[in-house]
Amino acid sequence: MYKYCINEMLANLPMKDYKKALKIIPMVLNISPNTFFNYRSIRAEESRDIPYQKMLQLEQIFGVRPGGLQNVQVKCKHISELLQEYKHL
To answer: Of 66, 41, 71, nearest to 55 (Cα)?
Structure first.
């Protein structure tokens, strides 16, 4: 499973648009096509991430809400819980 559903979003495009999108999106993001391929290939278990600004742009390009491209939800405790848990520091 991939960490982000970029491939699924691209797969929903007609084939002619899919091929164009593979060229246009890296240009808009100001990255190489290879870097865009690497973004699309990040597996869920990997620690690698897409840089925040690039992720914001991708969400806007695909018209999804913030976090809408993530296949894996990030979980973290609220600051009040963390402060309680680490009060001995």
So the answer is: 66
Return d(Cα 83, Cα 44) in angstroms, integer: 29
Query: Does residue 1 belong to any structural domain of this protein?
Result: no
pLDDT in tens, 24-41: 999 999 999 999 999 999
Bin 75: left if φ > 0, else alpha if -120 < ψ < 50, else beta. Answer: beta
Per-residue exposure over 34-47, b if at least 16 CB sit within 10 Å of its own CB, e if not:
eebeebbebeeeee
Residue 40 sits in which domain range? 6-85
Locus of tokens 């890296």: 26
Stated pTM of the model = 0.85
